[in-house]
Amino acid sequence: MKSLRNEVAICDTSCLLYLGRIGLLDLLPAMFKGVVVPWQVVVELDMGRFFRPDTLDPRKLDWLSLTEVSRYEMENLPPNRLGIGERAVIAYALSLDSGFVCLDDLLARRLASSLGLKVIGIAGFESKWEMIRLQL
């Protein structure tokens, strides 16, 4: 198995939200050398706190880097109906030309894969974490 420790994870709202809710957010820094979140995802999580105050705030995570993704970068993606957070994650990953995009939305995963990006979701974290634990 290729080590993820040399990779960067670019995370969408759902990955952060779900891992946070099940208490496994620490998997991200344990599995990846870096975790990056576009500001568009931060805004989606901020809006989520209006409905559920326990929604995480990525600004409080010292192991996470926040990044700007321009509207121009997102508009250069192929036509799609994705949310702004998913588009920002995919656009940023394309600008890096490396790393994993952490997406759970099927349409977002399909677009990212079609653009040659490496995709991982919540189920992938669990299976890869089990493989890492077995190697320890």
Provide the descriptors you would attach to this structure in a database record:
single chain; 136 residues; alpha/beta; Rossmann fold; 5-stranded parallel β-sheet; 7 helices; 5 strands; 50% helix; globular; disordered C terminus
A few lines on this structure:
The chain is of the alpha/beta class and 136 residues long. It has seven helices and five strands.
Describe this structure in words.
The chain has helices spanning 13-21, 27-31, 39-51, 71-75, 84-96, 106-114, 122-135, and strands at 8-11, 34-38, 64-67, 100-102, 118-120. Residues 131-136 have low confidence and may be disordered. It has 7 helices and 5 strands. It has a single domain, classed as 5'-nuclease (Rossmann fold, 3-Layer(aba) Sandwich). The chain has a 5-stranded parallel beta sheet with strand order 3-2-1-4-5. Strand 4, helix 6 and strand 5 (118-120) form a beta-alpha-beta unit. The two termini are 13 Å apart. It has 136 residues and is α/β, with parallel strands linked by helices. The protein is globular, with a radius of gyration of 14 Å. The longest helix has 14 residues, at 122-135. It is 50% helix and 14% strand.
Give the topology, please.
Layout: E1 8-11, H1 13-21, H2 27-31, E2 34-38, H3 39-51, E3 64-67, H4 71-75, H5 84-96, E4 100-102, H6 106-114, E5 118-120, H7 122-135
Parallel strand pairs: 1-2, 1-4, 2-3, 4-5
Helix pairs in contact: 3-5
Q: What's the number of structural domains?
A: 1
CATH topology grouping: Rossmann fold
Q: In percent, how much strand structure appears in the residues?
A: 5-15%
Helix run count = 7
Identify the strand order in the major beta sheet: 3-2-1-4-5
Mean pLDDT: 87
| Helix and strand run | EHHEHEHHEHEH
First CA to last CA: what distance? 13 Å
* Shape, principal axes of CA atoms: globular
> What CATH architecture label applies?
3-Layer(aba) Sandwich
* Oligomeric assembly: single chain
Global Rg: 14 Å
Structural class of the helices, strands and pairings?
Answer: alpha/beta
CATH class: Alpha Beta
At the fourth CATH level, what is the homologous superfamily? 5'-nuclease
The amount of helix comes to 40-55%
Number of strands: 5
Largest sheet: 5 strands, parallel
Contiguous low-pLDDT stretches (5 residues minimum) are 131-136
